[in-house]
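Reminder: ligand-aware prediction takes two inputs, not one.
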Amino acid sequence: MAELLVVEDDETIGTALSAGLRAHGHAVSWQRTARGALDAAAGRAFDLVLLDLGLPDLDGVEVCRRVRAAQPAAVIVVLTARSEEIDVVVGLEAGADDYLTKPFRFGELLARVRAHLRRSAVLPPPQTLLTVGATVVDVGARRVTVAGAEVALRTKEFDLLARLAVEAGTAVSRETLMADVWDAHWFGSTKTLDVHVAALRRKLAAAPQAPRITTLRGHGYRLECSAD
Ligand code: CA
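Here is what comes back for the chain with calcium ion:
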């Protein structure tokens, strides 16, 4: 049973989400304010956080940033009515892993939650150590080191790097990355992929010996075997 934190000030949406997710076997803590969410996030670890950005007591991006700081391992899915917020929230700035644009159907949200909780069965098994040049991706420990120094990555950045590292030096299509790292049945926007690649690149660029990610226009990405 997954532990979910639902942060939503709208009574109708919050009630429907909590009831629906509980009916599907999840433990749900529903908070209506940013303060409530931050208190809950400080108290225990959640597997996944559904976060409405339009809260009465604090800016949504700031709430996201603070929830991320308190819950480094949780998947954060942002719920927003404003698509212009997505770039800021998904990625380095605020640390969300995914988003849903309001209005959404409950079935759509449930599919997305399930996909995140399944943690991508096609990713390499936990005992795998992937070595790319001076970079070691320890799948079990979810740790990446470059020449012995750890590079801190968020959940989906790690999954993305691990997926690319399995086939280092080989082109991996956008469709494959979306299917393996996010959800096999999600054929929606792939903006999330680009934002995560950008964030991953920035983090890897800080380590001189880390491999580079090459963009293959119209196809996908390739993790280079050697840093050049
Ligand atoms: Ca709201």
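The first helix runs from residue 11 to 23. The mean pLDDT is 86. We will return to this case in the review session.
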